[in-house]
Amino acid sequence: MADKESTVYVVDLGESMADCHNGRVESDLDFGMRYVWDKISDTVAASRKTWTIGFVGFNTDETDNELADKDKLEGYDNISVLQPIGPMSMTELRELRSKVQPSRSYGADPVSAAVVALKMLEKYNPKHKIKRRVILVTNGESNIDDEELDHIAAVFNQFKVELIVIGIDFDDADYGFKEEDKSTNKKNNEKALQQLVEKCNDGVFGTMQQAVDELSIPRIKPVRPFKAYDGPLTLGDPDKYPSAISFHVERYYKTKRASAPSASTVVVSNNNGFSQSQTYKDEDGDSEMGGAEFSGVKQMRTYKVNDPDAPGGKRDVDFEELAKGYQYGRTVVPFGESDLSITKYSTKKSFTIIGFVPFDSYNPFINMGETGLIVPQKMNEEAELGLSAFIHALYEAESYAVARYVQKDEAAVQILLLKPNTGLEDEFECLYDVPLPFAEDVRSYQFPPLDKVLTVSGSVLKEHRLLPNDDLKDAMSDFVDAMDLSNYDVDEDGKPVDYAPVDEVYNPIIHRMNQAIRARAVDPDSPIGQPAEILLRYSKPPKKLLEKAKHEIGNLIDAAELKKVPEKAKGRFGKKDTVKPLSGLDIDSLLGGQPKRAAISSENAIPEFKQMLAAAEDDETIEKAVKQMGEIVRKLIKDSFADVFYSRAAENLGVMREELLGFEMPMLYNKLLRALKKSLLSGELDGDRREMWYKHIVGGGLGLITKEELDVSDVTEEEAKAFAK
């Protein structure tokens, strides 16, 4: 059964919450709501109906709660239920945001507001079969009646409700925060709230500074165990040989690559009646965006073939008439639907050990992917004994097992390496597995040696300008020792600590995306903040370590004779400036000048295009080079089977764009690109080539050169965006 929880946020909206304190430029309310909005947006993003939220504001100008309105009890004035308990959507989140504003009131009791929240939880789910909590946020300026604290704490304990009090500028010795010059009234209120929390069986008391600081720490989504395999692990064939070994095991993922949130394309209609394209996708596949009506975009694909007798020279083809074709040289080998089974390798679910290898004969670099965890079947003593004996036998023999693994019928075959884990270190007995490569997966490349130079005649040179001398080797050795992270920091006992433990190294792409989505969901009009510092921590060496190794870095620079390369100069007046060598020598004169090239070959297009531009003495030669390069791009696209040559064509376009930017001649590139788009979308280049335009040209950033990139261009940013559609 899915976990159920209900949370009511009780927030101080009094007049004092609009003030700024302790050097902050934001009000106490905005400071505290940073924590509240983050927690609420996480719940909304989870999109679980069993996770519900309520919101109570106290010190409001109005009074809207059952204890004051229905029961006519005193002490519950200026307390309003702004959001009844229930699942929260994006629309409700934004409506709530508009209600959370500081008021001009100041007399409400925070404890009374917590009682209102407790009453809401009791009414929403009286059977206690749910995790319930009240989160109280206040700056402690409102007076508190502390006579009923024992009774209120008893009610919290009776209904098993967790009470979390987070005070703005509350003192916390454990965290190291203390507010100076605190008023006597705030001290007393703070003490009363702390006493209430201590009387509750499940209570937390803290300062908002710590809560806000911890928001930058990414929260890793808990993942339920996923059973990838449930069946026998065999050594030999039990059906043929009585001596074969077989025991029932279960396989789970130990490591699995996490991916960033995906998005789907939708059409949003705003209040002006116009439509725009937006992307958002929730867990159930349904989309929602506050204040806008929209629907998912359904793609419809049509297939056409050339037919001179059909109108327009093309005829529609049904999907059922299509067949899969595989390229074989310059031809295509078709396979009909009935023939597809011939190309598929039929397999049966199995997990069989095929051999063993010693520890020292295995190279870790051949690991192919995610790690699995193999344990015996639950409540199966025979499997537990069998797997335990097998694990200890591998450990004592200092060997790994190699197994053939098929997760289910007709699944792809994998070769797994099984590593024994006896539980001597972590008290957990299991097998870890990693996939091994097949022969086709291994890339064997030959690279020249780093410690010697081989000449054409076969001679071996130990001293050469490309080889480091003894001074450089010594300087590099000292630099590596100085940058050693194993002794970078020590704990309280003086022992080295890990610089980057695995559980503190977060994927910046995933969490930056989550941060951006959360910020845009809560407040679509505000700019998205910078990435959290914890995500950038390992993107550069520690400053303290660099300062410590400053001397070694200087010695390395001197020994390697490093010099700063001058920046590439931009062209002026149609001619691209050349970079003068640091030596001051005229390379062109020494080599007899740049050779003039009459034509560019498609086999070596990019170098020859650059040579032709470098030797150009007038604009006519540049135009000629661009025209030839454009014809090569068109030919590559026209001759391409599917998208085989699209990358080469895009690379040629990219070089042409970069070079013409340097020559300050954007009109040549823009003219060529306009003509190319017309040819691509009209089918002039032997079929439907729209993928080349949208994926490789538009998606690859090879659009028109705009005024923002080059002043002499006559294309605006808006015109370039319209042209790309």
From TrEMBL:
Organism: Podospora comata
Record keywords: ATP-binding, Chromosome, DNA damage, DNA recombination, DNA repair, DNA-binding, Helicase, Hydrolase, Nucleotide-binding, Nucleus, Telomere
Catalysis: reaction(s): ATP + H2O = ADP + phosphate + H(+)
Major place of residence: nucleus
Protein name: ATP-dependent DNA helicase II subunit 2
Source organism phylogeny: Eukaryota, Fungi, Dikarya, Ascomycota, Pezizomycotina
Protein EC: 3.6.4.12
Nucleotide-binding found in the keyword field: yes
Annotated signal peptide: none
SMART domains named in the record: Ku78
Keyword Transmembrane: no
Residue span(s) of domain Ku: 314-453
Pfam families, sorted: Ku (PF02735), Ku_N (PF03731), Ku_PK_bind (PF08785)
